[in-house]
Amino acid sequence: MLETTIAGSLPKPSWLAEPKKLWPAWRLEADALAEGKRDATLLALKIQEDCGIDIVSDGEQSRQHFVHGFLEGVDGIDFARRVPMGIRNNRYEAMVPTVTGPLRRKGPVHAAEARIARAHTARRLKFTLPGPMTIIDTIADSYYGDRVAMAMAFAEVLNEEARELAAIGVDVIQFDEPAFNVYLDEVTGWGIAALHRAIGGLSCKTAIHICYGYGIPANIEWKATLGHEWRQYERIFPALAASHIDQVSLECAHSHVPVELLSLLHGKDVLVGAIDVASDKAETPEEVAATIEDALRFVPPERLYPCTNCGMAPLDRTLAEQKLAALTAGAALVRGRR
């Protein structure tokens, strides 16, 4: 009951990459970089285990970015052909690569780091992949000419990757879909169908992570426009409850998402974000426990997994560790009361 996990990413060591950056530059090259990524993965696992996290991740230590880390292993994408593009309904602009041909994996993308992680922890292992809708919202298209067609093509590529990760022994495969709280009509129109294609044939647990984003200025400014209550999820939770996805991950700590909306996810495991990744202060165990107790009014304890609001990649490492320790301590407090 109340097993803890994380949304996915952890800060990278300063010897591997620039600290406190969402998209850090590597500080190593060639064989030294490969070795550094492996060592950082082992460190991320050890930190999670020391902090008491029950379902651990590789911390995304081998990826500069949660989307582009996967795209680097896909043919049909021209990284030299970068164009400006508005992302998340033009919330911010980035220079993105362009799809110029049929999408195919060059080979296994994340198998190496999954094998390293699987070999070095006896705990259940989660691995994260970007979801189809979020991918197409983060890359330009000059080949498919249709957003849905491109999303479905990416879903097929993701499914190949996910099947290999499951065969390696990954226990939970999570698809990160922050775009799901932006394009609400598309979620029910084709977004969940694309996810179903991505999880087809998987025997492991499947999850979707939806969030209001990292604590970067563009996201903070956008959140200020959303009003006192963030009820966007009200439109998509019933469809997610009816979907084939096993778990739904979302933020609750310091969030304006009305907690009663969790009741709309009946029948799903809910990964309740009890750690605010946009805060520079570590939560106390009591604060974490309060968030969990609030969610337990609407989610059965056997289906509630205390989690972080989002990835922790841009955070200070010491702060991230303090937050993980608070997460497990808060969950323990709640267990002790039941």
Q: Which percent bin holds the helix content?
A: 25-40%
The main sheet orders its strands as: 1-4-6-7-8-9-10
CATH class: Alpha Beta
Rg on CA atoms, Å: 19 Å
Secondary-structure content class: alpha/beta
Proportion of beta-strand residues: 15-25%
CATH architecture: Alpha-Beta Barrel
Average pLDDT confidence is: 95
Q: Give the low-confidence spans.
A: none
Number of DSSP strand runs: 10
The gross shape turns out to be globular
Q: Can you tell me the CATH topology?
A: TIM Barrel
What's the helix count? Answer: 10
List the SSEs and their pairings.
Elements: H1 30-51, E1 55-57, H2 68-71, E2 74-87, E3 92-105, H3 111-119, E4 124-130, H4 132-136, E5 140-141, H5 147-168, E6 172-176, H6 184-199, E7 205-209, H7 217-223, H8 237-241, E8 247-251, E9 269-275, H9 285-295, E10 304-308, H10 317-336
Parallel strand pairs: 1-4, 3-5, 4-6, 6-7, 7-8, 8-9, 9-10
Antiparallel strand pairs: 2-3
Helix pairs in contact: 1-10, 3-5, 5-6, 9-10
Short description:
The protein is α/β, with parallel strands linked by helices and 338 residues long.
Descriptive account of the structure:
This protein has a single domain, classed as Alpha-Beta Barrel (TIM Barrel), CATH 3.20.20.210. It is 36% helix and 20% strand. The chain contains ten helices and ten strands. The chain has a seven-stranded parallel sheet. It has a three-stranded mixed sheet with strand order 2-3-5, covered by helices on one side. Strand 6, helix 6 (184-199) and strand 7 (205-209) form a beta-alpha-beta unit. The mean pLDDT is 95.
